[in-house]
Specification:
By secondary structure, the chain is α+β, with helices and mostly antiparallel strands. Helices cover about 45% and strands about 10% of the residues. The protein has helices spanning about 30-50, 85-95, 100-115, 115-120, 125-140, 140-145, 170-180, 190-205, 215-230, 260-275, 290-305, and strands spanning about 15-20, 20-25, 55, 60, 65-70, 80-85, 180-185, 275-280. Strands 1-2 form a two-stranded antiparallel sheet. The protein has a two-stranded antiparallel ribbon with strand order 3-4. Strands 5-6 form a two-stranded antiparallel sheet. A hairpin with a 2-residue loop joins strand 3 and strand 4. It is elongated and about 120 Å long. The termini are far apart.
């Protein structure tokens, strides 16, 4: 009997024996496992041919598979481009042709074709515009104005207080988002013996301080320079972005932060008068589409309760 023959019930061996009793068993791999292994080899070869795989030098094999998507040219036309398969191109194509992307494009087209008044009367379209506008606000505006549009006194205007320096029409908001804002007030050369009276007079316009007698006369006289922009009664001028000083809403001077301390409030006003205001918001017309700006305007306008 050969060494590879089995006795009843014994496992087959290869015939190799060490130390007299140490034998090598002959247990073949299951056929299903071998076929699975062969499939993985074939899959790997196909994958290497179709997709990016092997690095060489400072680049890599691109594969023969490609992804097509559309891009907008500088003259506003669209064209189809094709590039080797990669996740960025695949994401771009999915954003253009997936069912959710097509549904979104349909809603965007509705916003493009409808007036602001019509959008306000269509709850579904309005909700879509607010949703997109909220996302756009978070990406481009929240860094300065805050996630809720509350702003920061002295730095960035509050968009949630219904006090619109430049007006609250959709056309105005769209224009300011697209082209930016220059919100500057030159420093005022007010004599030292008049500036306290001027500050008190400004506070009195909104009931933050009382002023009477000679002080009132001096304060009102000094305010004549301010009235050129803010109006004789201090109610502002939307055409110039001059704030209303009689509505107790303070965007630059932190009067509310002083509590009941009148001297602190006076100092806040004096600081603004003496130093002026230098604020600028960049335009986003080169970064956002016209429709994105329209939806952002709808979202911003509702922050102030409109």
């Amino acid at each position: 009997m050969s060494q590879t023959e089995n006795k009843q019930g014994q496992v087959e061996t290869t015939g190799h024996v060490w130390d007299g009793d140490l034998r090598e068993y002959n247990n073949p791999l299951p056929r299903w496992w071998l076929w699975a292994f062969y499939v993985t080899i074939v899959f790997s070869v196909v994958y290497w041919i179709l997709y990016p795989a092997w690095p060489y030098g400072d680049t890599y094999t691109k594969g023969i598979s490609s992804v097509e998507y559309t891009v907008e040219t500088e003259d506003g036309e669209t064209k189809t481009v094709s590039e080797p398969w990669n996740t960025r191109a695949l994401f771009t194509r999915d954003m253009q042709s997936s069912p959710s992307a097509l549904a979104q494009q349909e809603w965007v087209s509705r916003v493009e074709d409808m007036s602001f008044e019509a959008i306000e009367q269509d709850p579904d379209t309005l909700q879509f515009a607010l949703s997109v506008g909220h996302g756009t606000f978070g990406d481009y505006c929240a860094a300065c104005h805050g996630a809720g549009g509350q702003g920061k006194v002295g730095l960035f205007p509050n968009l949630a207080d219904n006090d619109w320096l430049w007006g609250n029409s959709y056309e105005t908001i769209v224009d300011k988002i697209a082209n930016g804002i220059q919100g500057n007030m030159p420093a005022q050369n007010v004599p030292e013996d008049q500036i306290d009276d001027l500050a008190n007079y400004v506070l009195s316009l909104s009931g933050e301080a009382e002023i009477s007698g000679e002080a009132a006369s001096r304060g009102k006289q000094a305010f004549a320079t301010c009235a050129a922009c803010h109006g004789a009664e201090g109610k502002g001028n939307e055409a110039m972005g001059a704030p209303n000083l009689a509505d107790a809403i303070w965007d630059v001077a932190d009067v509310p932060g002083c509590g009941g301390d009148t001297a602190c409030k006076v100092d806040e006003i004096k600081h603004v008068v003496n130093n002026g205001i230098q604020r600028e918001m960049p335009g986003f017309g080169d970064r956002l589409t016209e429709t994105q700006i329209r939806m952002l305007a709808i979202y911003v306008r509702q922050l102030g309760g409109n």
